[in-house]
Write a structure and sequence with these properties.
The protein is of the alpha/beta class. The chain is built from twelve helices and eight strands. It has an eight-stranded mixed sheet with strand order 3-2-1-4-5-6-7-8, with helices on both faces.
């Protein structure tokens, strides 16, 4: 499987690195900054290309991994290089399935995807949209295989991408916000910053693994940490009095509405 990446920034490079040791993938790359491309080539074994035509000619799957504002500049060179046998895969935030299909003018099938930021360390969650009826089963399987090395892959209709954006795309920033807040609380109450940071991060990791590995409902896991008249129930009661759960749900709704307003799919 020959895969060409137009754009080898953070997310593109992360996906390329997950594929470097996988049998069956040959990777090509194109980037505005040649020095960065050549550095990545030395690290991963990808083949640098000089222009979009060369990359597209060599690739079965062309991955559009540029910023949304750069995508329009790519179309004039990309579209004439596409053929019916190719498949365009976009990880460019904000470009909808309709944008992609309109952009290529039906020349080839397109796939919209959205990886979240933990894909940078191989622990991401990626949504893929297979709404284009021109896609073959082989192409669908290949795209899923391409992203599975970056974490979990979920096939979703595009109508659910705004929900995915609000909960999963924006979600890591919410978690980082909570981590930061708890670190600061530890410092305020007397912990050294380095110790507070290390302990809070480990606590989040442990709780996440426990939630993932346990067969118990998440509510039961929470109840396991609560003792009558203890510190935890006092804090949770304060959360309820302050409507923390409702405020979090409202914040996710705000993110959802903004995604709809922007045309869908930007988690920034």
């Amino acid at each position: 499987m020959n895969v060409g990446f137009i754009g080898t920034g953070n997310m593109g490079a992360a996906i390329i690195k997950t594929l470097q040791s996988v049998d069956g993938f040959t990777v090509f790359g194109l980037n505005q900054t040649r020095s960065k491309l050549e550095t990545l080539a030395r690290e991963t074994g990808l083949t640098p290309c000089d222009d979009i035509r060369e990359l597209t000619d060599k690739s079965d799957f062309v991955v559009l991994a540029v910023k949304p504002q750069q995508a329009q500049a790519v179309w004039p060179d990309l579209v004439p290089a596409l053929t019916r046998e190719k498949c365009l895969v976009s990880i460019a935030a904000g470009l909808t399935q309709k944008d992609l299909m309109r952009g290529v003018g039906g020349i080839c099938p397109v796939v919209r995807t959205m990886p979240n930021s933990p894909a940078l360390i191989g622990e991401g969650v990626t949504a893929v949209c297979f709404d284009d009826p021109a896609l073959t089963d082989r192409q669908k399987q290949a795209v899923q295989a391409m992203f599975q090395y970056s974490g979990d892959v979920h096939v979703l209709p595009e109508q659910l991408f705004d929900v995915f954006t609000a909960v999963i795309g924006s979600g890591p920033a919410f978690i980082f916000y909570l981590i930061e807040t708890m670190i600061e609380s530890g410092v305020e109450l007397g912990l050294e910053r380095e110790s507070s940071s290390r302990m809070v991060k480990k606590m989040f990791r442990g709780a996440s693994l426990m939630a993932e590995q346990s067969t118990l409902h998440i509510s039961l896991l929470r109840e396991m940490s609560v003792a009558p008249r203890g510190t935890t129930i006092a804090a949770l009661a304060h959360f309820d009095h302050a409507a923390v759960r409702g405020n979090i749900m409202d914040a996710i709704r705000v993110a959802f509405n903004r995604s709809v307003e922007m045309g869908g799919g930007s988690a920034s």
